Known about the structure:
- The complex is a heterodimer.
- Chain A has a single domain, classed as Aldolase class I (TIM Barrel, Alpha-Beta Barrel), CATH 3.20.20.70.
- Helices cover 28% and strands 22% of the residues of chain A.
- Chain A contains nine helices and twelve strands.
- An eight-stranded parallel beta barrel of chain A has the order 1-2-3-4-5-6-7-11, surrounded by four helices.
- In chain A, strand 9 and strand 10 (221-229) form a beta hairpin.
- The longest helix of chain A has 13 residues, at 47-59.
- Chain A is globular, with a radius of gyration of 18 Å.
- In chain B, strand 12 and strand 13 (242-244) form a beta hairpin.
- Classes of the chains: A alpha/beta, B alpha/beta.
- At the A-B interface, helix 3, helix 4, helix 5, helix 6 and strand 7 of A face helix 4, helix 5, strand 8, helix 7 and strand 11 of B.
Amino acid sequence: MQFALGPVLYYWSAQKMRDFYTQVAASPAQVVYLGETVCPKRREWRLPDYLAVAHELREAGKTVVLSTMTLLESPADLRELRRHCDNGEFTVEANDIGAVGLLHEQGLPFVAGPAINCYNPRTLKKLATLGMQRWVMPVELSRDWLAELLDQPEVQDIRSAFEVEVFAFGHLPLAWSARCFTARSENRPKDQCGLCCIDYPDGKAVHNQEGQRLFTLNGIQTQSGSRYNLINELPSMAGLVDCVRLSPQAEGTFDWLARFHANSGGECPVALEPNDSNGYWLKLAGIEQVETA
Amino acid sequence: MELLCPAGSKPALKAALKHGADAIYVGLKGETNARHFAGLNLNDQGLAEAAAEVHRQGRRLHVAINTFAHPGHWKRWQEAVDHAVRAGADVLIIADIAVLDYAHQRYPEVELHLSVQASATNVAAIDFYQQQFGVSRVVLPRVLSMPQVSALARSVSVELEVFAFGSLCIMAEGRCYLSSYMTGESPNNAGACSPAKFVRWEEKPNGQLESRLNGILIDRFEKDENAGYPTLCKGRFESGGERYHVLEEPTSLNTLALLPQLHQEGIKAVKIEGRQRSPAYVAQVTQVWRAALDRVLADPHNYQVAEAWNTQLAGLSEGSQTTLGAYHRRWR
Lengths: 293, 332
Protein backbone atom coordinates (compact mmCIF):
# COMPACT_ATOMS: atom_id res chain seq x y z
CA MET A 1 0.00 0.00 0.00
CA GLN A 2 1.31 3.40 -1.01
CA PHE A 3 0.68 6.68 0.76
CA ALA A 4 -0.03 9.87 -1.13
CA LEU A 5 -0.22 13.50 -0.09
CA GLY A 6 -3.07 15.21 -1.93
CA PRO A 7 -2.84 18.76 -3.28
CA VAL A 8 -2.93 21.50 -0.63
CA LEU A 9 -6.58 22.54 -0.69
CA TYR A 10 -6.11 25.73 1.33
CA TYR A 11 -4.43 29.00 0.49
CA TRP A 12 -1.06 29.03 2.20
CA SER A 13 1.66 31.66 1.98
CA ALA A 14 4.61 30.94 -0.32
CA GLN A 15 6.80 30.45 2.75
CA LYS A 16 4.41 27.96 4.34
CA MET A 17 4.27 26.06 1.04
CA ARG A 18 8.08 25.92 0.83
CA ASP A 19 8.38 24.70 4.41
CA PHE A 20 5.70 22.10 3.85
CA TYR A 21 7.28 20.63 0.73
CA THR A 22 10.73 20.59 2.31
CA GLN A 23 9.21 18.24 4.89
CA VAL A 24 7.41 16.26 2.19
CA ALA A 25 10.74 15.50 0.50
CA ALA A 26 11.97 13.86 3.70
CA SER A 27 8.68 12.10 4.48
CA PRO A 28 7.69 8.52 3.69
CA ALA A 29 4.97 9.64 1.23
CA GLN A 30 5.48 7.87 -2.12
CA VAL A 31 3.08 9.92 -4.24
CA VAL A 32 2.74 13.71 -4.09
CA TYR A 33 0.03 15.79 -5.79
CA LEU A 34 0.94 19.40 -6.51
CA GLY A 35 -1.24 22.24 -7.66
CA GLU A 36 -4.06 24.66 -6.97
CA THR A 37 -7.40 22.87 -7.34
CA VAL A 38 -9.80 25.35 -5.76
CA CYS A 39 -9.43 28.97 -6.85
CA PRO A 40 -7.59 30.55 -9.81
CA LYS A 41 -7.07 33.75 -7.81
CA ARG A 42 -4.69 32.04 -5.41
CA ARG A 43 -1.29 32.89 -6.82
CA GLU A 44 1.21 32.67 -3.99
CA TRP A 45 2.54 29.74 -6.01
CA ARG A 46 2.15 29.49 -9.76
CA LEU A 47 2.83 26.65 -12.16
CA PRO A 48 6.62 27.36 -12.38
CA ASP A 49 6.84 27.21 -8.56
CA TYR A 50 5.01 23.92 -8.53
CA LEU A 51 7.20 22.56 -11.32
CA ALA A 52 10.36 23.57 -9.45
CA VAL A 53 9.27 21.67 -6.36
CA ALA A 54 8.05 18.81 -8.56
CA HIS A 55 11.61 18.33 -9.79
CA GLU A 56 12.99 18.39 -6.25
CA LEU A 57 10.46 15.84 -5.10
CA ARG A 58 11.18 13.61 -8.05
CA GLU A 59 14.87 13.79 -7.17
CA ALA A 60 13.87 12.73 -3.67
CA GLY A 61 12.24 9.62 -5.16
CA LYS A 62 8.60 10.69 -5.09
CA THR A 63 6.06 10.03 -7.80
CA VAL A 64 4.80 13.52 -8.63
CA VAL A 65 1.40 14.32 -10.11
CA LEU A 66 0.21 17.80 -11.13
CA SER A 67 -3.33 18.47 -9.96
CA THR A 68 -5.64 20.71 -11.97
CA MET A 69 -8.46 23.13 -11.13
CA THR A 70 -11.81 21.56 -10.34
CA LEU A 71 -14.31 24.21 -11.40
CA LEU A 72 -13.24 25.74 -14.72
CA GLU A 73 -15.39 28.69 -15.66
CA SER A 74 -13.52 31.18 -17.83
CA PRO A 75 -11.35 30.99 -20.96
CA ALA A 76 -8.42 31.98 -18.71
CA ASP A 77 -9.08 28.96 -16.48
CA LEU A 78 -8.95 26.76 -19.54
CA ARG A 79 -5.66 28.27 -20.75
CA GLU A 80 -4.15 27.53 -17.33
CA LEU A 81 -5.45 23.97 -17.55
CA ARG A 82 -3.78 23.57 -20.94
CA ARG A 83 -0.47 24.77 -19.49
CA HIS A 84 -0.72 22.03 -16.87
CA CYS A 85 -1.60 19.36 -19.42
CA ASP A 86 1.28 20.50 -21.67
CA ASN A 87 3.92 20.33 -18.91
CA GLY A 88 5.69 17.55 -20.80
CA GLU A 89 7.05 15.71 -17.77
CA PHE A 90 4.58 14.90 -15.03
CA THR A 91 1.36 12.95 -14.97
CA VAL A 92 -1.70 15.15 -14.47
CA GLU A 93 -4.62 14.64 -12.10
CA ALA A 94 -7.78 15.58 -14.01
CA ASN A 95 -10.30 17.15 -11.67
CA ASP A 96 -12.70 18.14 -14.44
CA ILE A 97 -13.79 16.06 -17.41
CA GLY A 98 -12.41 18.83 -19.64
CA ALA A 99 -8.93 17.84 -18.49
CA VAL A 100 -9.67 14.21 -19.34
CA GLY A 101 -10.59 15.36 -22.84
CA LEU A 102 -7.42 17.42 -23.33
CA LEU A 103 -5.13 14.70 -21.99
CA HIS A 104 -6.78 12.00 -24.04
CA GLU A 105 -6.41 14.12 -27.20
CA GLN A 106 -2.67 14.22 -26.57
CA GLY A 107 -2.51 10.52 -25.78
CA LEU A 108 -1.31 11.26 -22.24
CA PRO A 109 -2.03 9.10 -19.21
CA PHE A 110 -3.88 10.70 -16.29
CA VAL A 111 -5.16 10.29 -12.77
CA ALA A 112 -8.95 10.73 -12.44
CA GLY A 113 -9.39 12.97 -9.38
CA PRO A 114 -12.09 12.58 -6.73
CA ALA A 115 -14.36 15.22 -8.30
CA ILE A 116 -14.75 13.21 -11.52
CA ASN A 117 -18.10 11.44 -11.32
CA CYS A 118 -17.14 7.81 -11.67
CA TYR A 119 -19.67 5.64 -9.84
CA ASN A 120 -19.76 2.38 -11.77
CA PRO A 121 -17.68 -0.17 -13.68
CA ARG A 122 -18.70 1.01 -17.14
CA THR A 123 -17.62 4.57 -16.45
CA LEU A 124 -14.39 3.31 -14.89
CA LYS A 125 -13.68 1.17 -17.92
CA LYS A 126 -14.34 4.07 -20.26
CA LEU A 127 -11.91 6.27 -18.30
CA ALA A 128 -9.31 3.50 -18.37
CA THR A 129 -9.75 3.25 -22.13
CA LEU A 130 -9.13 6.98 -22.38
CA GLY A 131 -5.83 6.71 -20.50
CA MET A 132 -6.62 6.67 -16.78
CA GLN A 133 -3.80 5.14 -14.77
CA ARG A 134 -5.10 5.80 -11.30
CA TRP A 135 -8.63 6.38 -10.05
CA VAL A 136 -9.33 8.44 -6.95
CA MET A 137 -12.75 7.31 -5.78
CA PRO A 138 -15.42 10.01 -5.18
CA VAL A 139 -15.36 10.82 -1.47
CA GLU A 140 -19.00 9.90 -0.84
CA LEU A 141 -18.54 6.23 -1.78
CA SER A 142 -18.16 3.38 0.69
CA ARG A 143 -15.98 0.32 0.96
CA ASP A 144 -18.97 -1.82 -0.07
CA TRP A 145 -19.57 0.33 -3.15
CA LEU A 146 -15.90 0.06 -4.11
CA ALA A 147 -15.78 -3.71 -3.55
CA GLU A 148 -18.93 -4.26 -5.60
CA LEU A 149 -17.68 -2.01 -8.37
CA LEU A 150 -14.31 -3.74 -8.63
CA ASP A 151 -16.01 -7.11 -8.58
CA GLN A 152 -17.93 -6.51 -11.84
CA PRO A 153 -16.70 -8.42 -14.91
CA GLU A 154 -16.13 -5.19 -16.91
CA VAL A 155 -13.49 -4.17 -14.38
CA GLN A 156 -11.89 -7.49 -13.65
CA ASP A 157 -10.59 -7.69 -17.22
CA ILE A 158 -8.75 -4.39 -16.87
CA ARG A 159 -8.02 -4.26 -13.15
CA SER A 160 -4.26 -4.34 -13.73
CA ALA A 161 -4.44 -1.27 -15.98
CA PHE A 162 -5.08 1.21 -13.16
CA GLU A 163 -4.58 1.80 -9.45
CA VAL A 164 -7.25 2.69 -6.92
CA GLU A 165 -6.73 5.57 -4.53
CA VAL A 166 -8.94 6.58 -1.61
CA PHE A 167 -9.15 9.95 0.15
CA ALA A 168 -8.56 8.84 3.73
CA PHE A 169 -7.57 11.80 5.88
CA GLY A 170 -8.50 15.48 6.12
CA HIS A 171 -11.54 17.69 5.70
CA LEU A 172 -13.48 16.31 2.75
CA PRO A 173 -14.00 18.48 -0.31
CA LEU A 174 -17.79 18.29 -0.66
CA ALA A 175 -18.95 21.06 -3.00
CA TRP A 176 -17.81 23.79 -5.41
CA SER A 177 -19.69 26.99 -6.20
CA ALA A 178 -19.47 30.19 -8.22
CA ARG A 179 -19.79 31.97 -4.92
CA CYS A 180 -16.87 32.50 -2.57
CA PHE A 181 -18.12 31.66 0.89
CA THR A 182 -15.02 32.88 2.68
CA ALA A 183 -15.33 36.32 1.04
CA ARG A 184 -19.07 36.27 1.83
CA SER A 185 -18.29 35.51 5.48
CA GLU A 186 -16.21 38.68 5.58
CA ASN A 187 -18.83 40.75 3.75
CA ARG A 188 -16.59 41.13 0.74
CA PRO A 189 -17.69 40.70 -2.86
CA LYS A 190 -15.80 37.92 -4.66
CA ASP A 191 -14.25 40.50 -7.02
CA GLN A 192 -12.68 42.24 -4.04
CA CYS A 193 -12.02 39.23 -1.85
CA GLY A 194 -8.63 40.54 -0.74
CA LEU A 195 -7.46 36.92 -1.02
CA CYS A 196 -8.80 36.52 2.51
CA CYS A 197 -8.54 32.71 2.32
CA ILE A 198 -4.88 33.15 3.25
CA ASP A 199 -6.04 34.03 6.77
CA TYR A 200 -7.57 30.56 7.18
CA PRO A 201 -4.87 27.94 6.60
CA ASP A 202 -7.30 25.22 7.71
CA GLY A 203 -10.42 26.85 6.30
CA LYS A 204 -13.12 28.63 8.30
CA ALA A 205 -15.39 26.63 10.59
CA VAL A 206 -19.19 26.62 10.31
CA HIS A 207 -21.38 25.44 13.20
CA ASN A 208 -25.12 25.10 13.46
CA GLN A 209 -27.12 26.93 16.13
CA GLU A 210 -26.51 24.08 18.57
CA GLY A 211 -22.76 24.40 18.21
CA GLN A 212 -22.33 21.29 16.07
CA ARG A 213 -19.51 21.68 13.57
CA LEU A 214 -20.99 21.14 10.12
CA PHE A 215 -18.81 22.57 7.39
CA THR A 216 -15.49 24.21 6.64
CA LEU A 217 -15.43 27.16 4.27
CA ASN A 218 -12.52 27.14 1.85
CA GLY A 219 -13.21 29.84 -0.71
CA ILE A 220 -15.56 28.50 -3.39
CA GLN A 221 -15.16 25.00 -1.92
CA THR A 222 -17.25 23.72 0.96
CA GLN A 223 -15.58 21.03 3.03
CA SER A 224 -16.78 18.72 5.76
CA GLY A 225 -16.71 20.18 9.25
CA SER A 226 -15.28 16.92 10.50
CA ARG A 227 -11.86 15.59 9.66
CA TYR A 228 -12.26 12.37 7.70
CA ASN A 229 -9.98 9.80 9.25
CA LEU A 230 -9.75 6.22 7.98
CA ILE A 231 -6.61 5.30 9.91
CA ASN A 232 -8.27 2.30 11.51
CA GLU A 233 -9.81 1.21 8.23
CA LEU A 234 -6.50 0.53 6.49
CA PRO A 235 -6.80 -3.25 7.02
CA SER A 236 -10.26 -3.15 5.39
CA MET A 237 -8.64 -1.61 2.30
CA ALA A 238 -6.35 -4.56 1.68
CA GLY A 239 -6.86 -6.04 -1.76
CA LEU A 240 -9.03 -3.11 -2.86
CA VAL A 241 -6.98 0.04 -2.47
CA ASP A 242 -3.50 0.63 -3.88
CA CYS A 243 -2.91 4.13 -2.61
CA VAL A 244 -4.16 6.04 0.43
CA ARG A 245 -4.44 9.83 0.23
CA LEU A 246 -3.84 12.17 3.12
CA SER A 247 -4.97 15.72 2.48
CA PRO A 248 -2.47 18.25 3.84
CA GLN A 249 -3.64 20.04 6.99
CA ALA A 250 -2.08 23.22 8.40
CA GLU A 251 -0.64 21.26 11.32
CA GLY A 252 0.22 17.66 12.08
CA THR A 253 0.16 16.19 8.57
CA PHE A 254 3.47 14.36 8.95
CA ASP A 255 2.61 12.96 12.37
CA TRP A 256 -0.53 11.50 10.87
CA LEU A 257 1.37 10.19 7.88
CA ALA A 258 3.66 8.35 10.28
CA ARG A 259 0.65 6.95 12.18
CA PHE A 260 -0.97 5.78 8.96
CA HIS A 261 2.27 4.09 7.96
CA ALA A 262 2.57 2.38 11.30
CA ASN A 263 -1.00 1.11 11.10
CA SER A 264 -0.93 -0.15 7.49
CA GLY A 265 -1.73 -3.69 8.58
CA GLY A 266 -3.69 -2.73 11.69
CA GLU A 267 -0.70 -3.02 14.04
CA CYS A 268 -1.10 0.38 15.69
CA PRO A 269 -4.71 1.56 15.75
CA VAL A 270 -5.33 5.10 16.95
CA ALA A 271 -8.29 6.37 18.97
CA LEU A 272 -10.25 8.80 16.83
CA GLU A 273 -10.68 12.37 18.01
CA PRO A 274 -14.17 13.82 18.66
CA ASN A 275 -14.21 15.74 15.38
CA ASP A 276 -13.07 12.79 13.25
CA SER A 277 -15.49 11.02 10.93
CA ASN A 278 -15.45 7.79 8.94
CA GLY A 279 -19.11 7.44 7.94
CA TYR A 280 -18.72 7.43 4.18
CA TRP A 281 -16.36 4.45 4.13
CA LEU A 282 -18.71 2.55 6.42
CA LYS A 283 -21.76 3.27 4.19
CA LEU A 284 -23.24 5.80 6.61
CA ALA A 285 -23.78 9.55 6.47
CA GLY A 286 -20.34 11.06 5.94
CA ILE A 287 -20.48 13.06 9.16
CA GLU A 288 -20.77 9.99 11.37
CA GLN A 289 -18.01 8.47 13.42
CA VAL A 290 -17.95 4.83 14.39
CA GLU A 291 -15.27 3.95 16.92
CA THR A 292 -13.02 1.42 15.29
CA ALA A 293 -9.75 1.39 17.24
CA MET B 1 -35.36 29.81 -28.14
CA GLU B 2 -37.64 27.25 -26.58
CA LEU B 3 -39.38 27.04 -23.24
CA LEU B 4 -38.70 23.77 -21.45
CA CYS B 5 -41.00 23.02 -18.53
CA PRO B 6 -40.98 20.38 -15.80
CA ALA B 7 -43.61 17.75 -15.11
CA GLY B 8 -43.54 15.29 -12.23
CA SER B 9 -47.02 13.97 -13.02
CA LYS B 10 -49.59 13.79 -15.79
CA PRO B 11 -51.60 16.76 -14.47
CA ALA B 12 -48.41 18.85 -14.40
CA LEU B 13 -47.64 17.77 -17.95
CA LYS B 14 -51.10 18.85 -19.07
CA ALA B 15 -50.66 22.20 -17.33
CA ALA B 16 -47.34 22.79 -19.07
CA LEU B 17 -48.84 21.90 -22.45
CA LYS B 18 -51.89 24.07 -21.93
CA HIS B 19 -49.88 27.13 -20.98
CA GLY B 20 -47.41 27.00 -23.82
CA ALA B 21 -44.33 24.89 -23.07
CA ASP B 22 -42.40 24.05 -26.26
CA ALA B 23 -40.98 20.97 -24.63
CA ILE B 24 -41.50 19.13 -21.38
CA TYR B 25 -39.11 17.10 -19.31
CA VAL B 26 -40.07 14.20 -17.08
CA GLY B 27 -38.43 11.37 -15.18
CA LEU B 28 -39.21 7.70 -14.69
CA LYS B 29 -40.15 6.30 -11.32
CA GLY B 30 -37.16 5.06 -9.32
CA GLU B 31 -33.63 6.20 -8.76
CA THR B 32 -32.66 6.91 -12.36
CA ASN B 33 -33.46 10.61 -12.16
CA ALA B 34 -32.45 13.49 -9.91
CA ARG B 35 -35.97 14.08 -8.53
CA HIS B 36 -36.44 10.67 -6.99
CA PHE B 37 -39.28 11.65 -4.65
CA ALA B 38 -42.19 9.57 -3.41
CA GLY B 39 -45.34 9.96 -5.52
CA LEU B 40 -43.46 11.70 -8.32
CA ASN B 41 -42.57 10.75 -11.89
CA LEU B 42 -44.05 8.42 -14.48
CA ASN B 43 -44.13 4.67 -14.91
CA ASP B 44 -43.48 3.07 -18.30
CA GLN B 45 -47.09 3.26 -19.41
CA GLY B 46 -47.46 6.81 -18.14
CA LEU B 47 -44.40 7.76 -20.13
CA ALA B 48 -45.81 6.30 -23.34
CA GLU B 49 -49.08 8.15 -22.78
CA ALA B 50 -47.20 11.36 -22.04
CA ALA B 51 -45.17 11.02 -25.23
CA ALA B 52 -48.31 10.44 -27.28
CA GLU B 53 -50.04 13.46 -25.76
CA VAL B 54 -47.02 15.73 -26.21
CA HIS B 55 -46.58 14.65 -29.83
CA ARG B 56 -50.29 15.11 -30.58
CA GLN B 57 -49.78 18.74 -29.68
CA GLY B 58 -46.62 19.07 -31.72
CA ARG B 59 -44.27 19.49 -28.74
CA ARG B 60 -41.26 17.47 -27.59
CA LEU B 61 -40.68 15.20 -24.64
CA HIS B 62 -37.33 15.04 -22.82
CA VAL B 63 -36.70 12.23 -20.35
CA ALA B 64 -34.19 12.78 -17.56
CA ILE B 65 -32.09 9.71 -16.76
CA ASN B 66 -29.56 11.78 -14.92
CA THR B 67 -28.26 9.97 -11.88
CA PHE B 68 -25.16 7.79 -11.75
CA ALA B 69 -25.64 4.06 -12.19
CA HIS B 70 -24.85 1.91 -9.18
CA PRO B 71 -22.47 -1.01 -9.58
CA GLY B 72 -24.41 -4.24 -9.74
CA HIS B 73 -27.65 -2.44 -10.71
CA TRP B 74 -26.71 -1.39 -14.21
CA LYS B 75 -29.88 -2.97 -15.60
CA ARG B 76 -32.07 -0.27 -14.00
CA TRP B 77 -30.32 2.48 -15.92
CA GLN B 78 -30.14 0.48 -19.12
CA GLU B 79 -33.85 -0.31 -18.90
CA ALA B 80 -34.69 3.32 -18.21
CA VAL B 81 -32.97 4.23 -21.50
CA ASP B 82 -34.66 1.35 -23.35
CA HIS B 83 -38.11 2.23 -21.98
CA ALA B 84 -37.75 5.93 -22.68
CA VAL B 85 -36.74 5.28 -26.28
CA ARG B 86 -39.51 2.74 -26.76
CA ALA B 87 -42.07 5.13 -25.26
CA GLY B 88 -41.15 7.70 -27.89
CA ALA B 89 -38.98 10.17 -26.01
CA ASP B 90 -37.51 12.81 -28.31
CA VAL B 91 -34.57 13.50 -26.05
CA LEU B 92 -32.70 11.76 -23.25
CA ILE B 93 -31.07 13.96 -20.60
CA ILE B 94 -28.09 12.05 -19.21
CA ALA B 95 -25.22 12.73 -16.81
CA ASP B 96 -23.38 9.42 -16.31
CA ILE B 97 -20.66 8.48 -18.79
CA ALA B 98 -21.80 4.84 -18.65
CA VAL B 99 -25.39 5.75 -19.54
CA LEU B 100 -24.29 8.19 -22.25
CA ASP B 101 -22.07 5.54 -23.77
CA TYR B 102 -24.86 2.98 -23.81
CA ALA B 103 -27.48 5.34 -25.25
CA HIS B 104 -25.07 6.61 -27.91
CA GLN B 105 -24.04 3.11 -29.02
CA ARG B 106 -27.46 1.49 -28.83
CA TYR B 107 -29.67 4.35 -30.10
CA PRO B 108 -27.48 6.61 -32.24
CA GLU B 109 -30.60 8.21 -33.72
CA VAL B 110 -31.90 9.48 -30.38
CA GLU B 111 -31.01 13.03 -29.36
CA LEU B 112 -28.83 13.20 -26.23
CA HIS B 113 -28.62 16.22 -23.96
CA LEU B 114 -25.97 16.48 -21.30
CA SER B 115 -27.62 16.88 -17.91
CA VAL B 116 -26.66 19.70 -15.61
CA GLN B 117 -25.57 16.94 -13.22
CA ALA B 118 -22.58 16.29 -15.48
CA SER B 119 -21.16 19.71 -14.46
CA ALA B 120 -19.88 20.74 -17.88
CA THR B 121 -18.85 24.37 -17.41
CA ASN B 122 -16.15 24.83 -20.03
CA VAL B 123 -15.33 24.30 -23.70
CA ALA B 124 -13.01 21.35 -23.09
CA ALA B 125 -15.65 19.44 -21.11
CA ILE B 126 -18.36 20.20 -23.67
CA ASP B 127 -16.08 19.12 -26.54
CA PHE B 128 -15.38 15.87 -24.69
CA TYR B 129 -19.05 14.96 -24.34
CA GLN B 130 -19.79 16.00 -27.91
CA GLN B 131 -16.93 13.98 -29.39
CA GLN B 132 -17.31 10.91 -27.23
CA PHE B 133 -21.09 10.57 -27.07
CA GLY B 134 -22.53 12.86 -29.72
CA VAL B 135 -24.46 15.05 -27.28
CA SER B 136 -26.22 17.79 -29.20
CA ARG B 137 -27.11 20.01 -26.29
CA VAL B 138 -25.56 20.85 -22.92
CA VAL B 139 -27.50 22.08 -19.90
CA LEU B 140 -25.23 24.56 -18.15
CA PRO B 141 -24.71 24.43 -14.39
CA ARG B 142 -25.97 27.43 -12.44
CA VAL B 143 -22.45 28.59 -11.60
CA LEU B 144 -21.65 30.64 -14.70
CA SER B 145 -21.94 34.40 -15.03
CA MET B 146 -23.70 35.93 -18.03
CA PRO B 147 -20.35 36.92 -19.64
CA GLN B 148 -19.13 33.33 -19.13
CA VAL B 149 -22.32 31.97 -20.70
CA SER B 150 -21.77 34.34 -23.64
CA ALA B 151 -18.14 33.27 -24.03
CA LEU B 152 -19.17 29.61 -24.08
CA ALA B 153 -22.00 30.22 -26.53
CA ARG B 154 -19.51 31.78 -28.93
CA SER B 155 -17.01 28.92 -28.72
CA VAL B 156 -19.01 25.70 -28.93
CA SER B 157 -21.08 24.14 -31.69
CA VAL B 158 -23.52 22.26 -29.45
CA GLU B 159 -26.78 23.87 -28.37
CA LEU B 160 -26.82 25.39 -24.90
CA GLU B 161 -29.67 25.31 -22.42
CA VAL B 162 -29.77 27.36 -19.23
CA PHE B 163 -31.82 27.33 -16.06
CA ALA B 164 -34.19 30.25 -16.10
CA PHE B 165 -36.37 29.92 -13.03
CA GLY B 166 -36.89 27.85 -9.90
CA SER B 167 -34.98 26.52 -6.93
CA LEU B 168 -31.44 27.75 -6.90
CA CYS B 169 -28.64 25.24 -6.55
CA ILE B 170 -25.71 27.30 -5.33
CA MET B 171 -23.17 24.55 -5.87
CA ALA B 172 -22.02 23.19 -9.22
CA GLU B 173 -24.61 20.50 -9.85
CA GLY B 174 -23.26 16.97 -9.82
CA ARG B 175 -20.43 18.18 -7.63
CA CYS B 176 -22.13 18.53 -4.30
CA TYR B 177 -21.98 15.82 -1.67
CA LEU B 178 -23.30 17.94 1.21
CA SER B 179 -26.53 15.93 1.29
CA SER B 180 -24.83 12.55 1.62
CA TYR B 181 -22.48 14.04 4.21
CA MET B 182 -25.51 14.64 6.43
CA THR B 183 -27.86 11.84 5.38
CA GLY B 184 -25.96 9.28 3.33
CA GLU B 185 -28.05 10.18 0.25
CA SER B 186 -27.13 12.74 -2.39
CA PRO B 187 -28.33 13.71 -5.86
CA ASN B 188 -25.49 11.66 -7.33
CA ASN B 189 -25.95 8.47 -5.33
CA ALA B 190 -29.70 8.53 -4.64
CA GLY B 191 -31.32 11.12 -6.90
CA ALA B 192 -32.33 13.55 -4.18
CA CYS B 193 -30.89 16.41 -2.12
CA SER B 194 -31.88 16.73 1.54
CA PRO B 195 -34.44 13.89 1.13
CA ALA B 196 -37.84 14.40 2.78
CA LYS B 197 -37.59 11.20 4.82
CA PHE B 198 -34.79 12.77 6.88
CA VAL B 199 -36.70 16.01 7.57
CA ARG B 200 -38.16 16.65 11.03
CA TRP B 201 -40.05 19.71 12.25
CA GLU B 202 -40.39 20.45 15.93
CA GLU B 203 -42.27 23.23 17.65
CA LYS B 204 -40.59 24.35 20.85
CA PRO B 205 -42.44 25.59 23.96
CA ASN B 206 -41.28 29.15 23.20
CA GLY B 207 -43.07 29.01 19.86
CA GLN B 208 -39.95 28.56 17.78
CA LEU B 209 -40.03 26.06 14.99
CA GLU B 210 -36.94 23.90 14.44
CA SER B 211 -36.07 22.17 11.19
CA ARG B 212 -33.74 19.20 11.24
CA LEU B 213 -32.19 16.96 8.64
CA ASN B 214 -31.23 13.51 9.89
CA GLY B 215 -31.32 14.96 13.40
CA ILE B 216 -29.00 17.86 12.57
CA LEU B 217 -30.37 21.32 13.28
CA ILE B 218 -30.63 23.32 10.05
CA ASP B 219 -32.60 26.37 11.19
CA ARG B 220 -34.88 27.89 13.84
CA PHE B 221 -37.80 30.11 12.94
CA GLU B 222 -39.68 32.65 15.02
CA LYS B 223 -43.48 32.47 15.01
CA ASP B 224 -43.91 35.15 12.36
CA GLU B 225 -41.16 33.83 10.08
CA ASN B 226 -41.71 31.94 6.86
CA ALA B 227 -40.22 28.49 7.59
CA GLY B 228 -38.50 27.02 4.53
CA TYR B 229 -37.76 23.40 3.71
CA PRO B 230 -34.45 22.42 5.36
CA THR B 231 -32.36 22.19 2.22
CA LEU B 232 -29.05 21.97 4.00
CA CYS B 233 -27.31 24.77 2.12
CA LYS B 234 -30.06 27.23 3.03
CA GLY B 235 -29.94 27.04 6.82
CA ARG B 236 -28.79 29.71 9.26
CA PHE B 237 -25.46 28.70 10.69
CA GLU B 238 -22.61 30.40 12.54
CA SER B 239 -19.18 31.33 11.31
CA GLY B 240 -16.69 33.80 12.71
CA GLY B 241 -19.12 34.65 15.52
CA GLU B 242 -21.93 35.66 13.14
CA ARG B 243 -25.23 33.86 12.61
CA TYR B 244 -26.48 34.13 9.03
CA HIS B 245 -27.24 32.19 5.89
CA VAL B 246 -23.63 31.11 5.55
CA LEU B 247 -24.09 29.48 2.15
CA GLU B 248 -27.34 30.83 0.67
CA GLU B 249 -30.65 32.46 1.59
CA PRO B 250 -33.82 30.60 0.73
CA THR B 251 -34.45 32.21 -2.63
CA SER B 252 -35.31 31.27 -6.20
CA LEU B 253 -33.54 31.92 -9.46
CA ASN B 254 -35.34 34.31 -11.80
CA THR B 255 -33.70 35.36 -15.06
CA LEU B 256 -36.56 37.19 -16.78
CA ALA B 257 -34.31 40.26 -16.96
CA LEU B 258 -31.64 38.31 -18.87
CA LEU B 259 -33.90 36.97 -21.61
CA PRO B 260 -32.80 39.42 -24.34
CA GLN B 261 -29.12 38.63 -23.69
CA LEU B 262 -29.75 34.88 -23.61
CA HIS B 263 -31.68 35.21 -26.85
CA GLN B 264 -28.94 37.28 -28.46
CA GLU B 265 -26.32 34.68 -27.55
CA GLY B 266 -28.35 32.01 -29.27
CA ILE B 267 -29.18 30.04 -26.12
CA LYS B 268 -31.43 27.30 -27.44
CA ALA B 269 -33.66 26.72 -24.46
CA VAL B 270 -34.60 28.20 -21.12
CA LYS B 271 -35.42 25.62 -18.51
CA ILE B 272 -37.85 25.90 -15.63
CA GLU B 273 -36.81 23.89 -12.56
CA GLY B 274 -39.42 22.00 -10.56
CA ARG B 275 -40.49 18.46 -11.43
CA GLN B 276 -41.38 18.18 -7.73
CA ARG B 277 -43.84 21.12 -7.99
CA SER B 278 -47.64 21.05 -8.25
CA PRO B 279 -49.58 21.33 -11.51
CA ALA B 280 -50.83 24.76 -10.37
CA TYR B 281 -47.23 25.94 -9.93
CA VAL B 282 -46.22 24.60 -13.34
CA ALA B 283 -49.26 26.29 -14.91
CA GLN B 284 -48.48 29.72 -13.46
CA VAL B 285 -44.75 29.68 -14.14
CA THR B 286 -45.26 28.39 -17.69
CA GLN B 287 -47.82 31.12 -18.33
CA VAL B 288 -45.47 33.91 -17.26
CA TRP B 289 -42.49 32.56 -19.15
CA ARG B 290 -44.53 31.93 -22.30
CA ALA B 291 -45.60 35.57 -22.27
CA ALA B 292 -42.04 36.77 -21.66
CA LEU B 293 -40.57 34.54 -24.34
CA ASP B 294 -43.18 35.60 -26.90
CA ARG B 295 -42.38 39.21 -26.12
CA VAL B 296 -38.63 38.75 -26.55
CA LEU B 297 -38.99 36.70 -29.72
CA ALA B 298 -41.28 39.33 -31.27
CA ASP B 299 -39.23 42.37 -30.37
CA PRO B 300 -36.01 41.73 -28.44
CA HIS B 301 -34.89 45.37 -28.47
CA ASN B 302 -37.94 46.73 -26.73
CA TYR B 303 -38.37 43.87 -24.30
CA GLN B 304 -39.06 44.85 -20.73
CA VAL B 305 -39.92 42.68 -17.77
CA ALA B 306 -43.55 43.30 -16.87
CA GLU B 307 -44.05 44.06 -13.19
CA ALA B 308 -46.94 41.60 -13.10
CA TRP B 309 -44.63 38.76 -14.15
CA ASN B 310 -42.21 39.43 -11.33
CA THR B 311 -45.00 39.70 -8.81
CA GLN B 312 -46.50 36.43 -9.94
CA LEU B 313 -43.15 34.62 -9.87
CA ALA B 314 -42.15 36.07 -6.48
CA GLY B 315 -45.33 34.57 -5.05
CA LEU B 316 -44.14 31.17 -6.25
CA SER B 317 -40.59 31.54 -4.97
CA GLU B 318 -38.80 30.33 -1.87
CA GLY B 319 -39.06 33.01 0.80
CA SER B 320 -40.84 35.13 -1.86
CA GLN B 321 -37.39 36.20 -3.00
CA THR B 322 -35.73 35.86 -6.37
CA THR B 323 -32.20 36.43 -7.57
CA LEU B 324 -30.18 36.41 -10.78
CA GLY B 325 -27.82 34.04 -8.98
CA ALA B 326 -24.41 33.41 -10.46
CA TYR B 327 -25.40 35.02 -13.76
CA HIS B 328 -24.92 38.32 -11.93
CA ARG B 329 -21.54 39.41 -10.54
CA ARG B 330 -22.78 40.73 -7.23
CA TRP B 331 -24.30 37.41 -6.15
CA ARG B 332 -20.87 35.80 -6.14
